[in-house]
Protein: Creatinine amidohydrolase
Organism: Devosia pacifica
Amino acid sequence: MSSRYWIEQSTRQMAAFDKSTVCVLPTAAVEQHGPHLPLGVDALINRGIIAAMLNVLPDTVPALILPEQSVGASAEHLRSSGTLSHRHVRLIEHWTELLEGVHRAGFKRVVIYNSHGGNRDLFYPIAVDLRQRFDMLVAYSSRSDAGVPADILDLPNLGFDIHAGAIETSIMMALRPDLVATDQIQDFPSNAIGFESRFTKLGAGVGGSRAAGFGWLSGDLNEFGACGDATAASADIGQRLVDHAADTLAKVIEDVWGANELVS
């Protein structure tokens, strides 16, 4: 079938596309990922999951992949060399304006697919604004929303494995093993676990539910800026996580495509 990537279409092809097509906006980050993984982990993982998703999405479901938004909101990592970041307000404006262009092209169904935790709070205001002004259906889903089935990876404190731990290291071993510095892999315990045992209501907003959170930097959680046991990682686990995330994303796209009652 023809390409499903927005940037590979001509203006003529774009005008002829089925207007029920679901446009997928990949959002990621470029930031430190401990001593063993590259800065582009989130972007590379997003790219790999979307490629795998396109292999399982039925041909009958029209989808277009918008240009990847590699740089996101990474203020919590700015003290580490190489991290790139935009301010939250600028990202909201930028991604809203980008999706206005999707509407001008005649499309009203969007899935924002995200692979960086620091971006998560930005999507709801974007989705509501575009719905109010254009009646667009903008859904959003993060890689972590797919969860980690216990038959793939079952570790103590897995909920605190949020950055360059077993999950992301495994996925990178599957997608880009050439970029994994295996001699630097170690267990990176998260101080967030200690916060939850020390405080009654205050938490870092990861791994569990607390009545109050706070604005943390990556160094507050671990001196290496990573959280999770990367020694438990393997390429096999990573490939299974990619496949699981790809299947989940494909189903999200199918749901949005079929949500005719939400698109006028």
Q: What stands out?
A: The chain has one domain: 6-262. The domain at 6-262 is CATH 3.40.50.10310 (Rossmann fold). Strands lie at 22-27, 63-65, 109-114, 137-142, 187-188, 228-229. The longest helix spans residues 235-258.
